[in-house]
Amino acid sequence: MQLDDRSVFLLSQLGHHVADRFADELAPLGLRPAHFGVLTHLRDGSGLSQQQLADLLRVHRNVMVGLVDDLETQGLVRRAPHPEDRRAHAVQLTGKARTLLREAATVADRLEETVLAPLDDGERAQLAALLHRVAEHAGLPPGVHPALNRRPSRRG
After folding, report:
1. Which long-range contacts link 106-110 to residues 24+ away (Cβ below 8 Å)?
2. Any residues with CB less than 8 A from the CB of 45 and at least 6 apart, and which?
3. Which residues are in the HTH marR-type domain (predicted)?
4. Which residues does residue 49 pair with via DSSP β-bridges, in sequence order?
5. Distance from C-alpha of 61 to C-alpha of 45, rounded to nearest angstrom
C-alpha cells in the first residue's frame, strides 16, 4: 500500500501543512496558534483562573502561566483578583484582544476556505462530522489542540 492510500498518512500530512500555514499567517498579528486557542477559550469564559484554563485546555499549569504571561505582555489579557478564590487570579480579555481575536478568526476562516476549496458545502459538513467521530473515538477533548502543551521553541 502506498503512503497516499493511507488515511492516517494523509491526515498527518494535511495536519502539518495546515498547522504550519496557520502559524505563518498568525505571526504578523503577533500570535502563535496556542495564543489563539487560549484567547478563543477566554472569549467564551472570560474570568477563568489560570488553573481553570489549564484544566480546560489540558495543559500543565506552568505552560499556561507562560501563555498568559505572553498575552499579558502584549496587552491582550489582564489578571484580576478572582471573585470566588482569593488565592487565584481571573484572566480577562482586554478590548485589544477582542479586536485582535476577530482578525485572527478571519485568518482562520480564510485558511479553512483555502484548504477546503475543492469540497462543496455538503462534503465539508460530512468531512467535519467524520473527523469529529474519529477525534471522539481517540478520546481527544473538543476544542483542545494537543500542541498546546508543547513549550515554544527558543526561536518562536
Report:
1. 107/22, 107/25, 107/26, 107/29, 108/22, 108/36, 110/25
2. 56
3. 1-136
4. 90
5. 18
Residue 74 and residue 93 in contact, taking contact as beta carbons nearer than 8 Å: no
Q: How many CB atoms lie within 10 A of CB 37?
A: 19
For 132-152, letters b (16+ CB in 10 Å) and e give eeeeeeeeeeeeebeebeeee
Q: How far apart are alpha carbons 68 and 141 in whole angstroms? A: 21
Nearest by Cα to 77 from 53, 97, 51, 61: 97
Which listed CATH number (3.40.50.880, 1.10.10.10, 3.30.390.50, 3.90.1150.10) goes with 3-144? Answer: 1.10.10.10
Q: How does pLDDT run across 78-134, given as a tens digit for each residue? A: 998 888 777 888 899 999 999 999 999 999 999 999 999 999 999 999 999 999 999
CA dist., res. 66 & res. 107, Å (int):
24
* The model's pTM: 0.85
If 0-12 CB within 10 Å is exposed, 13-18 middle and 19+ buried, where does residue 38 land? buried
Q: Residue 63 corresponds to which cell in the numbers above? A: 505552560
